[in-house]
Design goal:
The protein is α/β, with parallel strands linked by helices and 274 residues long. It has 9 helices and 9 strands. The protein has a 7-stranded parallel beta sheet, with helices on both faces. The protein has a two-stranded parallel ribbon with strand order 5-8. The protein is globular and about 60 Å long. The protein starts with a strand and ends in a 7-residue tail after the last helix.
Length: 274
């Protein structure tokens, strides 16, 4: 029987590329995301290429929707072999400018969304004595980045979640892996949240990120999809993608310098008392 992968955030970007890559390697694919039309388009493209694929619109912030997702996936394919947690949101600005709703959007999507899928699918993996959980995190889950406080908080939590689950579940035959990319040239900008001291500051932050994403060496969604595939195939617990290796190593060796660089990079029109 063909193995099956369930991917969240699968309507575009990293999730979409991962779906096609796994399908090309013989996996049946369960696609989950909030955008129904985009999700169905990806599923149809996979089916047109003679791959098994179903689309189940899901808001991972809602545990009942996630439970329904898992039940429908198992009903359709009898078993799930790999879970790729990928749904996420980027949020940038001075920490005092974020509302509690901003914090909830970041943490409910980036962290609770992962917890919901793991909680719903874990009994299936435990009963089978096998399964793989891949959590797409971020370099922001290993390096504290100023002006991305809600985002970095959620990603550090994913790092802890991933490492704790890896230690606990590996004796039960369940592999857990964290994927840590840097900024990726994908479609996340349309969902990103920017806050600032005023409208001009917000727009400057958005423009700054758009310019960074145009730099040639910024990784692409395919790079992350390839890292996910290698992690699953080789049972790797931890994969830093491309330039994330340099960011993490530099922060480890020169933490004060890197903190100063990050502060200057993302400060924009925020003012600091000297």
């Amino acid at each position: 029987m063909e193995p099956t992968v369930l991917i969240t955030g699968a309507s575009q970007g990293i999730g979409k590329e991962t779906a096609f890559l796994f399908a090309q390697h013989g996996y049946r694919v369960v696609l989950a995301a909030r955008n129904h039309n985009r999700l169905q388009t990806v599923a149809q493209a996979l089916r047109d290429a003679n791959h098994g694929a179903i689309a189940i619109p899901t808001d991972v912030r809602d545990p009942q929707q996630v439970q329904t997702l898992v039940e429908k996936a198992i009903d359709a394919y009898s078993a799930i072999d790999v879970l790729v947690n990928n749904a996420g949101i980027y949020i940038s600005g001075p920490v005092e400018e974020f509302t509690l709703d901003d914090w909830h959007q970041a943490i409910d999507t980036n962290l609770w969304g992962y917890i919901h899928t793991i909680h719903a699918l874990l009994p299936h993996f435990v009963s089978r004595g096998s399964g793989t959980i891949v959590n797409v995190a971020s370099v922001g889950g290993k390096v504290p980045i100023p002006y991305l406080a809600p985002y970095t908080t959620s990603k550090f939590a994913i790092t802890g979640l991933t490492e704790a689950l890896h230690t606990e579940l590996s004796p039960k035959g369940i592999h857990v892996c964290g994927i840590y990319p840097n900024l990726i040239k994908s479609d996340f900008m349309e969902r990103a949240i920017f806050r600032g001291k005023h409208e001009e500051d917000q727009q400057a932050r958005r423009q700054q990120l758009e310019e960074i994403l145009q730099v040639p060496f910024v990784e692409k969604p395919q790079d992350v999809a390839n890292a996910i595939w290698e992690a699953v195939q080789n049972q790797q617990p931890n994969v830093n993608v491309g330039s994330a290796n340099l960011s993490i190593a530099s922060h480890r060796l020169f933490p004060s310098l890197m903190q100063w660089i990050f502060r200057k990079t993302f400060q924009n029109q925020d003012t600091m008392h000297q």
